[in-house]
Amino acid sequence: MGGAISLLAVNFIISQIFTAAFLTIAAKSRQRRSALWCAAGFSIASLSAVCEAIVPFSATPRLFAIAAFACVLGGFCLLRFGLGLFYQVPVRAPVLVACFVAGVALDVAIFDLPRGTWQHSFFYQMPFVLILAWTASVVIRSTRRSFYDWLLFGLLALSSAYYFAKIYAAVAVGAGATAQDYVSSNFALVSQALGAMLIVGAGLAMLGVMVKDIVDDAQAQSEIDLLSGLYNRRGFMERVMPLLHARASETPGTLILADLDRFKLVNDTYGHLTGDEVIRRFARVLMDVMPNRAVAGRLGGEEFAVYLPCTELEEARVVAHGMRAAIMSQQISGLPETARVTSSFGVAVVGRGEALDPVMQRADEALYMAKANGRNRVECAETPKTVVNPSVPHWIARTSAQDA
User: Is the pTM of this model over 0.70?
Assistant: First the structure.
């Protein structure tokens, strides 16, 4: 009995450690609700060890034996709910509650059946088999496919198989004639030892997927420009570099550099809040006009970049014209009603096997040419074309400044 009691204590401590770990994750992750439900699952399941340890010494063993069963099943149900939130494969709470109530009712119904029989063992273990299999299916039904996701799926499936195997083991080895005898049986010793290993494995895998989610979020935040919502320079470079070496066809990619005209005067004349709104609106224009496969970023200040994979120069020039016309049509809060923001564009095609830096240099030269030739135009690095400036109701700082 001492060995089994010791393992029950170990399982309780392990579960409490995971409870604390998930509570810590909840404080750091955007998946706070999921982590809290998982913490609750481990905490509730850990109470089963307390109940099982009390059974041999209690005057009401039936109560504590059923409570132990309910704690394990309840903990598994809470883990199903929490992982469902995390993997975006949710389950309705009433359905899960109904499964829990049905499982506990089944345990109550079979309590007086002879232990060590197929009937008792099958109906006792099947609720655990089913809830763990159901939880494992959540991972497969989601779109996440990292190493930790597959590891978690494997451990959950293994845990389900473990409880299924216990149906045979309880009959073959014997789990004690009564609930009080269970703790002193060899079956309890082996069951608690294997259970401890599966708890550690599954718990670490759950922590792994959630910690990876936190790391991915932090990396994404470090690559996003908070004002525009586009990639910053680092994020843009890291997204575009692999595309240069993974083009699926002979069609080259094309880079567009864009710069808001006389943006400094917008800030100086109308204030930085208005300038921020101009940046946000231009970023929205880029996202609306560019193709779905394109990558857009704010390189700094009022300079933006858009990479169009597998796109010819002429098609990219048309896209740039669409962006130029779209921003000019915007009425932006903080500017006079007749004022319009304009922008200049430089376009350069990517040569086969060419690195990004020389492409950016050529696009920047074309952008400089667009600025020098009057702004509000598109110039191409290989075949510069002149674009006649359309008339607008009012140019910002039309005659008072020449700087960009």
Answer: no
